[in-house]
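Thread: "does anyone have the structure for this chain?"

Original post by V.I.:
We have the sequence but no experimental structure in hand. Need at least a predicted one for the grant figures.
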Amino acid sequence: MQGTGMIVVQDLHKHFGGFRAVDGASLEIAQGSITGLIGPNGAGKTTLFNVIAGVLKPTSGRVFMAGEDITGLPPHDLFHKGLLRTFQIAHEFSSMSCRENLMMVPGDQAGETLWNTWFGRKRIADQERALRAKADEVLEFLTIEHLADHKAGQISGGQKKLLELGRTMMVDARIVFLDEVGAGVNRTLLNTIGDAILRLNKERGYTFVVIEHDMDFIGRLCDPVICMAEGKVLAQGTLPEIKANEQVIEAYLGTGLKNKDKIGA
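Reply from O.Q.:
Generated one for you, tokens below.
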């Protein structure tokens, strides 16, 4: 039985020699949710992401997407099913403009075959016009239309993360895994990224899973929140429930309730 979530993970293990990075994790990600994934460093969060997204093959266990067994499928197959793991598409073409970076994303473009280059010029031109219009719409949605002609290598780290979100919009993603989107991003841009995630979730039906250490960001966006420790799922619930959970507090701090407000600090 594979459950009813958009993503269902059953008894997943990923071992590196004797080290059990993921050690029997089971969880469900509901369609249409923004699910937070928290836990101390070394909890197995990124390894779990990498196994779900096909970057790593599991030692054992299963992963299902909308009822289909996707265990061990390579990232490009999952990409075409609408499952995106942000670092796969994070490496911008630094010498190209932000608009051109977005236009590079969709697969199966007419200009990619030599035959079409010779005989399908109108089709290529029509497709490029449509892609350009879509890229401009994405840039506007993300409030970075003023960067359309800027070289992607010259924009800030936070703006690159917005561009990364924009790439997911070029292929109509169904579920997006975001790994520490807030790392190294100033508060203003982080709020803009948060706004974009909320709008993509509400207006376009995206499902998100977010690894993040910034508890304010998690609290604003995520319900439910899943806490991992030592490769296992420790607890799941709202952020206040997670923060009040004695097991979670021990996993983060090992000092009991008196320091619970420091979770995520």
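V.I.: this helps a lot. Residues 82 and 174 are 5 Å apart (CA to CA).
O.Q.: and The longest strand covers residues 19-29.
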